[in-house]
């Protein structure tokens, strides 16, 4: 029987953290978009939250990538550079929503992903340039 080796280096932990965050958001939007959007308290949420359900499937599918990269199954550098760009642009888009006044919901609901993406983006950029 082959011995399974647990990878514990910081880059692997960062990739796995990114995967776990993606799985949480992905399942949330895929399985219960109305509950997730209700948490925001934003009066501008869609009348039919099913319109955002597709995003949950996409985020969930994309969340597999960082986990596979942490295991060495995909070429890491190009994939991680793509993740870094995605996290940067997503974080900036959410930040713009706050600064421009577009978002009218609960502050914690938008600041939590801004902070998470703000932490993951530089980590991924660092990993992409290694």
Write up what this structure looks like:
This protein has five helices and no strands. The protein has 130 residues and is mainly alpha-helical. It has one domain (10-128). Helix 1 crosses helix 2 (33-40) and helix 1 runs antiparallel to helix 5 (107-128). The longest helix is centred in the C-terminal third of the chain and has 25 residues, at 76-100.
Give the SSE layout.
Elements: H1 10-31, H2 33-40, H3 53-70, H4 76-100, H5 107-128
Query: Radius of gyration, Cα only, in angstroms?
Result: 16 Å
Helix content: over 70%
Note the beta-strand portion. under 5%
Low-confidence stretches: 1-6
Total tally of structural domains: 1
Main sheet record: none
Summarize it:
The protein has helices at residues 10-31, 33-40, 53-70, 76-100, 107-128.
Task: Name the descriptors.
130 residues; mainly alpha; 73% helix; disordered N terminus
